Amino acid sequence: MTHTDDAVAPEQEHFDALIADDSRIEPRDWMPEAYRKTLTRQISQHAHSEIIGMQPEANWITRAPSLKRKSILMAKVQDEAGHGLYLYSSAETLGTPRPVLNDQLLTGRAKYSSIFNYPARTWADMGAIGWLVDGAAICNQVPLCRASYGPYGRAMVRICKEESFHQRQGWEILYELSHGTDAQKKMAQDAVDRFYGPALQMFGPPDADSPNSQQSMAWNIKRFSNDELRQRFVDMIVPQAEALGLTLPDPDLVWNEERQHYDYGELDWDEFMSVIKGRGPCSVQRMKRRREAHENGAWVREAAAAYAERQAARAAEAANHEDHETETAPSSQRPAAQLIGA
Ligand SMILES: [Fe+2]
Ligand SMILES: [Fe+2]
Fold it and tell me: What Pfam families would the database entry show (predicted)?
């Protein structure tokens, strides 16, 4: 089909109409290449973050202070693996197979959330990660349930339900510590001091330095800007910190009557950029561990592939056999389903 330069192709017109309608784009719909590329990058980075994000917490499963804490933490880390799987599946519907996405992570070409390059030093960090990191994830992800790309939005619905449980368990760990001995309270405060800044940076750079956000918002992938979401998060955690009896490490944090929001201080964006570039305190360790896990899992992938192959061969053989029987058997012996043409 040919069309002049200023005419809009019908498939683009259809796509634009769906977006203008706040409707959903599904895998079989035509979509602009840039939309497909942006989503593939965003969803796969999100998936990588879930998988790498298992590491700082998995580290504490064997050292959890009680059987109850251990089983809760184990369930939480398993949830994160599940989030990774839903998201890889969702990304694959855009046409890039999972081994390719995985390879992008393992070769360092794909990024994941910078927060997971920080160490989890004490048990209280399990509390701070749940409360602040999963809390920031919820603020970011609830609006993504309405993302224009169907498989992404639907994956986010279930993920968000699990994230709210994660945040709650983190808050509860911190509550118990902050109402415990002086040493426990100190440990809780120290964890919050270390995770507060990096958690606020999870929303990405300030709007002025986030040139791609506008396009993502125009496509109804993103619903709010980085700074809007960060503000929402700050407003949410200030009263929660008060309830915990802990302070947030920002002397500029103050209620602004006029704006009806909390003002907060400038974040360390140089540190953020340096962590993004792979110079975070645990960047090397996280990637090394991920590569090892991938190599150690090779036999599982091989076994799964061999099993799938055998199942497919059996199914083909059974179908063959059935065809043969259908051809030769008298009509009274054919399976009922075939007689009615199902
Ligand atoms: Fe998650
Ligand atoms: Fe989570």
Answer: PaaA_PaaC
How far does residue 186's CA lie from ligand 1's centre (Å)? 28
Structure tokens at 154: 């639907």
- Superfamily of 11-297 according to CATH: Ferritin, core subunit, four-helix bundle (1.20.1260.10)
Q: Among the listed ranges 166-175, 256-265, 271-280, which one has the minimum average pLDDT value?
A: 271-280
Classify 318 as helix, strand or coil: helix
- Over residues 143-175, the pLDDT tens digits come to 999 999 999 999 999 999 999 999 999 999 999
> For residue 11, how far is its CA from the centre of ligand 2 (angstroms)?
38
Distances from the Cα of 306 to the Cαs of 86, 100, 101, 281, in angstroms?
23, 20, 22, 40
**What is the distance in A from the centroid of ligand 1 to the CA of 79?**
7
- Say what the pLDDT of residue 6 is: 64
| Dist. CA 329 → ligand 2 center (Å) | 57
Nearest bound ligand to CA 165? 2
What's the gap in Å between 258 CA and the centre of ligand 1?
Answer: 35
CA terminus-to-terminus distance, the chain: 39
The string of pLDDT tens digits covering residues 86-118 is 999 999 999 999 999 999 999 999 999 999 999
Ligand 1 centre to CA of 160 (Å) is 8
In the chain, the DSSP E strands lie at: 254-256, 261-263
Question: How many residues does the structure list for the chain?
Answer: 342
Q: Which ligand is nearest to the CA of 75?
A: 2
State in Å: Cα 188 to ligand 2 middle: 19
Is the pLDDT at 329 greater than 80? The verdict is: no
Runs of H (alpha helix) within 201-264: 213-218, 226-244
